[in-house]
């Protein structure tokens, strides 16, 4: 495509292909993927359930999903590279 006389290439990328989770978000996402509840995650990490919920909302926003199941599916699609931080 040419825009204002400049040849351009448009590259489409799915939003979740460039997600950067914080170390704590990766930790929480992994625990969710293993089937833990917010309360069990909070207890294990010694944080409040409200804090877990806040992290999950941020993770959902980064992955553009609205449920735990969708988040886990996105993680599986990425072959868990996000969880390992690679």
Automatic annotation (TrEMBL):
It comes from the Bacteria. Keywords: DNA-binding, Transcription, Transcription regulation. InterPro entries: Sig_transdc_resp-reg_C-effctor (IPR016032), Tscrpt_reg_LuxR_C (IPR000792), WH-like_DNA-bd_sf (IPR036388). Residues 14-79 form the HTH luxR-type domain. This is Response regulator transcription factor. It comes from Rhodococcus kronopolitis.
């Amino acid at each position: 495509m040419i825009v204002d006389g400049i040849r351009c290439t448009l590259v489409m990328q799915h939003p979740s292909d460039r997600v950067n989770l914080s170390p704590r978000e990766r930790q929480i996402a992994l625990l969710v993927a293993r089937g833990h509840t917010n309360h069990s995650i909070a207890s294990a990490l010694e944080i409040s359930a409200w804090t877990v919920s806040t992290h999950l909302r941020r993770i959902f926003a980064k992955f553009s999903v609205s449920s735990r199941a969708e988040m886990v599916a996105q993680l599986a699609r990425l072959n868990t590279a996000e969880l390992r931080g690679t």
